Amino acid sequence: MSLQGKVAIVTGSGRGLGLAYAHELARQGAAVVVNDVDEATAAEAVASIEAAGGRAVAVAAPVGSTETAKRLVQAAVDTFGRLDILVTNAGVLRDTVLWKMSDDDFDTVINVHLRGTFTCVREAATWMRENEVAGRIICIGSPTGQRGNFGQTNYAAAKAGIVGMVRTWALELKRAGITANAVIPVAATAMTATVPYFAAAVEAEAAGEPMPAFFRHDLGFGTSDDVAGLIAYLASDAAAGVTGQAIGIGGDRLQLWSHPEPVATAYHDGGWSYDDLVPGFAAAAGDLQSVGEKFPPLPEELQRP
C-alpha cells in the first residue's frame, strides 16, 4: 500500500467525491480524518471506511474558520500521531446570475471554498514545516474556475483563486519538500444529476452499469472513483516531483491544464494610445480567447426527451 503510515485530512468527505477520496486514501494505507458539516454523515463515512479495513476519525464542522482548521489538524495529530496529506474538497453552491446574486450568496461560497482552503492549508503546512514532514497539499478546483460558467460568479472566483493560491504555495513550500497541486475533477455528482445533458450517464451509474463511452472518453466525465486514483497518486511519494500543477481528471481522461500565458504580443513605438488601439487592436491581439465550457452535441442514442 503506497500510503502506509501516512495520515490524511479530507474536508467535505462525508459523501460524494470527498468520500471517494477518503476511501481511496484509506485503501492505500493512510489513516483519514473525515470532515462534514453533519455529524451523522461524518460518522457514517468513518464507519464505511472502517468496515473496509481502514482507519478514520470524524470532525463535524464547517470549514472556513481558523478554528475548524485547527480542529482538523489537531484531530490528525492527537488520533494518529502526525499529518502528511491534506485534501481540501469541502464546498457549497449558491448559483444565480450576477444581478440576482446577494452578498450572502457570494460570501458563503467564498468563505467555504476559498477561505476554507486557505485556513486549512495554512494550518496543515505550518504543522508540516515545524515537524519537517514533506507533506502533500491537494486542493480541488473546477472547470468553472478555469473557463467560467453562467450563473457561477462566486464559484468561479473561488475555484480560480484556489488554483492561484496553489501556484504560490508550490513556490513557498518547495524548500520544505511540501508539494501543492490542484485537481480539476469532472464526475457525476448531485449537481450534474439534474442536468439533462448528462442524463444517460447518470442513469447508467444509478443502474450500476458502465457509462457510455461518449461520456467517459469524449467528455472525460465519469464517477467519483475515477478521480480518486489521482488524489492518492498526488498524496504519495511517487509524486514528490509534481507541484504547482492544475491536473484535470474524469472518466478515461487525464489532462494537464496550462498556466496562463500570453497568446499574442505586439509592440507600438511610444506605447498604445486610444487612437492606436481603435484601428490596431484586432491585428495585435489576433483571435480572442473563448469562455465557458463547450460540449459537443449528444449522440442521438444518448438524447433524452
What portion of the residues fall into strands of 2 or more residues?
5-15%
Figure out the total of helices.
10
- Overall number of structural domains: 1
Largest sheet: 8 strands, mixed
What is the rounded Rg?
Answer: 21 Å
What's the overall average pLDDT, rounded?
Answer: 96
CATH first level: Alpha Beta
Strand order of the largest sheet: 3-2-1-4-5-6-7-8
Number of strands: 8
Describe the structure.
With 305 residues, this protein is an alpha/beta fold. It has one domain (7-187, 223-257): NAD(P)-binding Rossmann-like Domain (Rossmann fold, 3-Layer(aba) Sandwich), CATH 3.40.50.720. It has ten helices and eight strands. The protein has helices at 16-27, 39-51, 66-80, 103-130, 143-147, 153-172, 199-206, 213-218, 224-235, 274-285, and strands at residues 7-10, 31-36, 56-60, 85-88, 136-140, 179-185, 246-250, 253-257. The protein has an eight-stranded mixed sheet, with helices on both faces. Helix 3 packs parallel to helix 4 and helix 4 runs parallel beside helix 6 (153-172). The mean pLDDT is 96.
Features:
305 residues; alpha/beta; Rossmann fold; eight-stranded mixed β-sheet; 10 helices; 43% helix; globular
List the SSEs and their pairings.
Layout: E1 7-10, H1 16-27, E2 31-36, H2 39-51, E3 56-60, H3 66-80, E4 85-88, H4 103-130, E5 136-140, H5 143-147, H6 153-172, E6 179-185, H7 199-206, H8 213-218, H9 224-235, E7 246-250, E8 253-257, H10 274-285
